[in-house]
Amino acid sequence: MNNYKTSKQPSDMKVLILFTLWSFIIQLFLSNDSPLFWLAHRVDSAWFFMEGKAFLYGMRPYVEFTDFKGPLIWLFYGIGWLISPLNYHGMYVVSGVFYALTLFFNYKTAMIFLRDNRLSMAATLPMIFVYFFPWFHFETRSEDLMLLFIAISLYALFKRIYAEERNDVADFLMLGGCFTTLVMMKYNIAAAQGVIVLIALWDQYKNKRGLAKPFLWMIAISVVIVAPFIIYFIMTDTLGAFFHNYFVLAYETVTNENSDSPSYMQDLAGILEDYRKIVFIAVVFLSGMLLSLRLKQYKLVPVTIALLFIAISTRHNVWDYYYGVCYIFILYLLIAVLLIYNQRARWACFGLLSAYIICSCLYGNLIVGELRQNTIFTHNDDREAFQAISDVMKDVDHPRLLSYECQEFGFGVMYGALPAGDQFAYPNGGTPAMIRDHRKILTDRKADFVVTYCRENQADKHQVLRDIEANGYELRLKRTYLNLPFYIYEKKK
Predict the structure, then answer these.
(1) 245, 301, 407, 463: which has the fewest Cβ within 10 Å?
(2) pLDDT digits over 89-102, tens only?
(3) SS3 label, residue 491
(4) What pLDDT does 7 receive?
(5) What number of other Cβ atoms are within 10 A of residue 255's Cβ?
(6) Distance from C-alpha of 68 to C-alpha of 55, rounded to nearest angstrom
């Protein structure tokens, strides 16, 4: 499949500008970070935003605030905070750039198989709706940011083995750089991407091109990416905490959250209990197999990579959004449809498929999904409750906030709240030591404000309210938000 460029192919810069406009326009309506949506109805994105803010504000990661993601997640969210400190609009800018680049590399990948810029553009444009398809997507999470590095890796590999365009320096810099970046974001996804690197190395060996230099290039780019963080961790005396929290406790929390530590057969049962997962995996598998029929070598590589990512995302799958990184493989389906020889059948199938993807995405997000409850034009009880709880903190500069025995919901965003301590929100699947650290923030009175929730019939949670008051906090407000009675306490002077 060499010589895939056409004489009328637009320049990469023009294509990138088009995808940038496309990314920002579509996300304006589908991303809850956009200016059309408000601050409420968030969980993970509120958590990451708090951490990104703390990171660039100067708090020590893994010591003064803690989560079980790599520091690059916080850096990207911190950039969003720098752009727009009191809302999530900065993340709209960050994710707009990320998705534009993801689409660009989707397009470059499609060109390898379709060898026509119009068909490749057609295959790529609907992908933005795939990435926001409501089955496994609600808000911007780490999975969204990781898509770019998976897209680059697929392009670098497929260019080598299918277009037979091999540039060892550029290709292995991309592959090694993406692997290291993913390690510094969420290492289980890096493990899946590592297979892409191994296939590229096998192709290098098979073609007698030598392995020493590719390894050197990958090591070099890895050092460039990691060294600034290692130096920073050493300077802030957080290197040991980084390794322990990210590489040890992260795994423990995931297995603890699935308290029975499910076996592979139980993971499989989790798929069979959800028709969405069955349909999604079947579509990816069949699309990969259809694509393989057009390949002369490495026929099963595309589908094998996709199924490996799905398998990694299935293992200890606590939340469905883990499958978000696998959405990228729907590109196989769009490419396979556009490879149909009969022109009329090709465009009929492509039109129906694109219409289904777009309509389902818009319907699932804006008509029946949670986005409809959180526009800037929406006035409802949840919005009023979120505003009222947040306003309690308005007179304190950068208040220290503890979400006690509950998740971080972003109540302090509009007033620049910072984490009150390492475990500033309840760690799902946390070890006993982590739970003690979480509760110690309360007993040490590090927080200016404490937020929690407690249903009237939750007798075990009533003790939580008594504990907060016993440690020198007074109730400022009680409001119902997301059908839960939330309480916000302020530290007594």
Answers:
(1) 463
(2) 999 999 999 999 99
(3) strand
(4) 46
(5) 14
(6) 14
Q: Tokens at residue 211, please?
A: 């392995």
C-alpha of 169 from chain center: 29
Q: Has residue 429 got a pLDDT over 50? A: yes
Chain position carrying tokens 């249903």: 455
Where is 223: in which H helix or E strand?
Answer: helix 212-235
Largest CA distance in the chain: 77
**What are the CA-CA distances from residue 208 to residues 154, 201, 298 (Å)?**
22, 11, 17
pLDDT score of 131: 97
Residue with tokens 């919901």: 409
Structure tokens given for 234: 């050493």
Q: How far apart are CA 147 and CA 31, in angstroms?
A: 15
Report d(CA 304, CA 144) in Å as an integer. Answer: 22
Look at 321 and 257; give whichever has higher pLDDT. Answer: 321
pLDDT at residue 162, rounded to an integer: 95
Please report which helix (H) or strand (E) contains residue 450, including its range.
strand 449-453
Query: Which tokens hold the place of 232?
Result: 């920073």
Cα dihedral value 373, 389, 43, 403, nearest 10: -160
Share of the chain above pLDDT 70, in %: 94
Distance from C-alpha of 419 to C-alpha of 94, rounded to nearest angstrom: 23
* Single-letter amino acid, residue 280: F
Q: Is 145 helix (H, G, I), strand (E, B) or coil?
A: helix
Q: Are 390 and 450 in contact (CB under 8 A)?
A: no
**Number of other CB atoms surrounding residue 132 within 10 Å:** 26
Q: Cα(21)–Cα(27) distance, rounded to whole angstroms?
A: 10
Rounded to whole angstroms, how far apart are CA atoms 40 and 163?
47
- Phi-psi sector, 458: left (phi>0), alpha (psi -120 to 50), beta: beta
Please give the Cα distance from 302 to 480 (Å, whole number). 48
